[in-house]
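Purpose: get a first structural picture of the assembly so the mutagenesis plan has something to point at.
Setup: two entries, given in the order below. No constraints added.
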Amino acid sequence: MIERDEEDLLARFAAVEDARALSESGLGASKARPSITAGQLIDYARRTDPIFNLAIERRIRENRSARTVYMNALGHTAIAGSPVAIAASGERAMSRMLGPHRMECIEDHEGLVLVIHLAKGEPVPSSLEVRSADGQGGRIALSKPIRGVIQFPLDRLDPAVAAVYDWIVNPDSAILLFP
Amino acid sequence: MRIAVIVPTTAGPRLVTGIRHRPRLPRSQIITDTDYRPLDDVSERYDDFISPAGPVRRFVSLPQGQFELRLDERLDGGRSWELPVALAHWAHNRGDEIVIARPERVIWATGSLGPDLDIRPDDYHVKEKLKRSMDLIAGFGEDGAKITLLVPPDDGRPIPAPEELGTDNLYRVGSLAEAISVLGNDHKQAPGQTAAEPRRSPVSILVLALALLLTVMGVYALERFGPEGGLVGLISGTPPKTSSETAVDASANEAEPMRAAEPGQSDNKAAQSDKLSAKAADPAAAEPTPIDLRLVEYRAPAGSSCIHVLLGNVAAVTHELSQENGHYPASERAGLCAIGLRLGDQSDPIEVTLDPTFVSALLASDRRPVLRIAPGAQPVLRLIQFAERDLDYTLTVGPVDGADPLRLGHRLAW
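Result (structure tokens, whole complex):
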């Protein structure tokens, strides 16, 4: 159920999208981008498969209203998360709590490894999303836990990981876990 | 040595592409070159398999901390990967390089391991796995690699003949220790031997041959050294044989005559029953090769401490000691983090009984009264760091084949 504040937000978002579409229609159909509805943003937030939709991702990054709708929907869907990390300015946030779970990034001679120590009795997440304040980031599938620990190397060269690599240790990024 | 390790599956062979020691990770894991996520189920089993409480880590004397094993493709479950993975760790721990191209040696093995590291009875689909691996094996063979195939004990199920496999270096092994023993020896294949021949255990032949040899040695020792002499130091070191070595290349085994105890000497040749008999008949050749047990000092590097070494944060500086006349050179206790035990050119596993005073100087998790050391293994015993007192202790090796135990002394001095 969408709360009243969100209804207002969605209404304003729809109005902004309509205005944008009208203003672009005079430029010719070939230059008009397909409009992204609030429903699409919400569905994208609720996706179970960490697919990457280029059009929606672009809108999230370019449009503050879209970003706000999306982040609100994420908050309703996530099972745990952390809006920001506690870290000194300019420092990397190598450890933070995601609800009851503890996430850390361990760096050794082989590279960076993402580790999530799962709290006992809590639902096991299957994916993780990182979002910076300006909408950068993405979602990645998590591995199954090994005796209560989810861990995998963050290989910058892996396309699935590349979207989150630069933001995972950014203290200003929101990190959320999904079922 | 460049070694390729094949993990056979019914879906095709998998190659170990690397082993990485990652002590800071909370869990060991298996990953593939094609997915950033560790393999489900298999990773958890691997974490248990290689854990500090597991038998493999101690047997192969792995360092502390977690490991990341890499495969070229995923496994589909089951446990037959355990033997080849244990052998990959053994090779890696020895300093061999795990490769997937131009190896000098190829290890193909299958079998799951029980708590005592014996191969569990099961249907391992050996014939099917061998057939699916043949192209890969043939390719390595064409590059000049030495191929060694290790299969579980004979369960009556047929396996391909050597001409189908392109190699007759196929051995049946019943445990990880046997597999390491096969790999640790420089085997020479008997001409005309086929994989279909029943793999007879050589134990009975070996026992009889050694009994005859020791009898002759005893006579020779009495004649030469008198009643006060004896067999101390004259310890036979004949390697355990798989049944593939019931006959060997005669020219390769006209080995050096067995001499009285000289440090560093080893009997690493595949001596067979007829050869043993021939040597036993010649008193001049009847002296056995002594046990060559080396101590390895593990010290903290300059600027660090044993705490960091023991936690796996820094690598220890090692130094090997050889015994002379029953004593090792004294070790300075300060900065000494651990003592490792390693066989020299020894091809038989040995048992070493630890002096109780030495055992009391070890970390609780390393306190064992007896160690069984296989060729290629190196158990490491970590020392309590704050017990500032000199320590004189004795390592008792054997008894081996009825000979008196060998007592070796060592001093840790402040």
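Helices of chain A lie at 4-25, 38-45, 54-62, 64-77, 159-165.
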